[in-house]
Amino acid sequence: MVLLQLMYIDLDFMSKFNIEIEVLQQFLFEVYRHYNNIPFHNFKHCFCVTQMMYGLIWLTDLQNKMDDIDILTMLTSAICHDLDHPGYNNAYQINARTELALRYNDISPLENHHCSVAFKILEKSDNNIFRNLTTEQFKRIREGMIKCVLATDMARHNEILNQFRSIMPVFDFNNKKHKDVLTMIIIKVSDISNEARPMDVAEPWLDCLLQEFFNQSDMEKLEGLPVSPFMDRDKVTKPSSQTGFIRFVLLPLFIELANLFPNLEQHIIDPVRKALDYYTEMENALEMEKLNRTGSSQSDKIGKPVENQEESKRVQIQLSQTKP
Ligand SMILES: Nc1nc2c(ncn2[C@@H]2O[C@@H]3COP(=O)(O)O[C@H]3[C@H]2O)c(=O)[nH]1
Ligand SMILES: [Zn+2]
C-alpha cells in the first residue's frame, strides 16, 4: 500500500488534484480490503498491474503527451480493475447464472462489478481521493475509469486491438478518441504483463493462475456446467497454457504498443520472447517424456512444436467464450 501511495506522490497527483494523504491512505486500505484472498486475482495482482502501468507511464513519457487527469484515471483504474474478483470468470458467472450475471445481463459481469465496487468505495467522502475535484473533472474521471476497467474483459480483446491498429497509422495525441483507445491498450498490456517480468517472478504467477483456473473447472464439473478447456487440469499444462497465449495474445498486443513507443521493445517484448522460448522448450521436453513413457514409435514428432493452428484455436476459445 505504501508503494501505491508513493506512485500518487511521485506523479505529483497530491498537489495537482489536492488529494489529502489520509484520504489516499484510507482509499488504498478500502481497496486492499475489497480484494479477495484467492490464488490469482488478489491484491498482489492489483499491485503488479498498477506497478506496470506506473512503469509504462514513465517509459512512454506519457505525462508530456496526455493530460494529468488522464494519467490519474489510468493509475486509479489499474488499482481498481479487479476489485472483489470471486475467482470464477465471466463464463462461469453466466453459465451458473450468478447474482452478477443476473445484475449485468451477462454483459461483462465481472468488469462491471469491479468498477461498481470502486465507485461505491469512492462514495464515502473519507475514501474519496477525487473529493476536491470539480464536478466536471469527476465526471471525466468516472467516464474514463469505466472505459478502462470494462476494457479488461478479454472477450473484447480483438475488438480493442483492431481499433488500435486502425488508428495507429494516423495516431494523434490531440485526438480524444485515439487517446481513449490508447488508455484501454495500456491497461490491457498491464493486466496481462506477468510474462514481461523476470522468469522467477513470472512463473509463480502462472502457477497461481492455473490454480484459480483448476478451482473453477473442478467446480464446473461438480455443478455439471460446461468446462472451459483451457482451465481443465486434465487437459492443460504450464507450457501448453503459455505458448499459445504468448504467441497469439501477448505478443501481437505488446508489439502494437511498441510500434507507437519503440523504446518499449527492450522492456516488454524481449522478455516475452524469452518466455516463449522457455515454454516452447518445456513443451517439447514434456512431449518427449510422454512419447518415451508410452514407448510410441512416433519419434519423428519429438522436438516439434504443437501445430500453430491448433494452438490458435485454443486461444480463440479463451478469448471468445465469454462474449455475450
Ligand atoms: N494463459 C494465460 N492466460 C493469462 C495470462 N495472464 C493473463 N491471462 C488471462 O488473461 C485474462 C485477463 O483478464 P482476467 O484477469 O479476467 O483473466 C486473465 C487470464 O484469463 C498468462 O500469463 N497466461
Ligand atoms: Zn487483472
From TrEMBL:
Entries under InterPro entries matching the protein: HD/PDEase_dom (IPR003607), PDEase (IPR023088), PDEase_catalytic_dom (IPR002073), PDEase_catalytic_dom_sf (IPR036971), PDEase_CS (IPR023174)
Keyword Metal-binding recorded: yes
Stretches for region Disordered: 292-324
Enzyme Commission number, as recorded: 3.1.4.35
Residue positions binding Zn(2+) 1: H45, H81, D82, D191
Catalytic reactions on record: 3',5'-cyclic GMP + H2O = GMP + H(+)
Binding annotation for AMP: H41, N42, F43, K44, H45, D82, D191, Q242
Active site: H41
CDD domains found in the cross-reference section: HDc (cd00077)
Keywords noted in UniProt: cGMP, Hydrolase, Metal-binding
Biased composition (Polar residues): 315-324
Pathway(s) per entry: Purine metabolism; 3',5'-cyclic GMP degradation; GMP from 3',5'-cyclic GMP: step 1/1
A Pfam family recorded for this sequence: PDEase_I
Binding, Zn(2+) 2: D82
Example of a GO MF term: 3',5'-cyclic-GMP phosphodiesterase activity
Matches recorded under Gene3D superfamilies: 3'5'-cyclic nucleotide phosphodiesterase, catalytic domain
Similarity section: Belongs to the cyclic nucleotide phosphodiesterase family. PDE9 subfamily.
Role description: Specifically hydrolyzes the second messenger cGMP, which is a key regulator of many important physiological processes. Highly specific: compared to other members of the cyclic nucleotide phosphodiesterase family, has the highest affinity and selectivity for cGMP. Specifically regulates natriuretic-peptide-dependent cGMP signaling in heart, acting as a regulator of cardiac hypertrophy in myocytes and muscle. Does not regulate nitric oxide-dependent cGMP in heart.
Record protein name field: High affinity cGMP-specific 3',5'-cyclic phosphodiesterase 9A
Species classification: Eukaryota, Metazoa, Chordata, Craniata, Vertebrata
